[in-house]
Recover the amino acids of this structure.
């Protein structure tokens, strides 16, 4: 029984490595794309929350929340939506003084980082 020349072994190893990369690369790209989407969503929510807090108007924040809720596809997104939903509830509660709203919202915004 012969094990063959070294060049065939090197070629086989290179082919196995190429197949592994070809199988792994789409998974890696999809994971990176999800991270970017979540990061961008957090940035937009932060901006809209600060704007809603300053203007005392949550209509834009609520609209974006409802529209983007349709594309939830990960547990990270669900956590972000839970936090934002709680912030919207705080902002819409007229029984809470504005200064307390600011403090509570700032504390919750820390979780979006």
């Amino acid at each position: 029984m012969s094990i063959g020349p070294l060049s065939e072994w090197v070629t086989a190893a290179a082919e196995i490595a190429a197949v592994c990369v070809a199988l792994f690369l789409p998974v890696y790209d999809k994971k990176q794309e999800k991270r970017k989407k979540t990061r961008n969503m957090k940035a937009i929510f932060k901006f809209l929350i600060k704007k809603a807090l300053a203007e005392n108007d949550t209509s834009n924040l609520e609209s974006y929340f409802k529209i983007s809720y349709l594309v939830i596809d990960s547990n990270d997104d669900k956590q972000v939506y839970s936090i934002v939903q709680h912030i919207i509830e705080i902002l819409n509660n007229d029984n809470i003084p504005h200064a307390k709203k600011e403090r509570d919202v700032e504390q919750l915004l820390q979780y979006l980082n």
About this structure: Residues 60 and 100 are 22 Å apart (CA to CA). The chain has a mean pLDDT of 88. Residues 6-55 form the longest helix (50 residues). The helical segments are 6-55, 59-68, 75-92, 98-110.
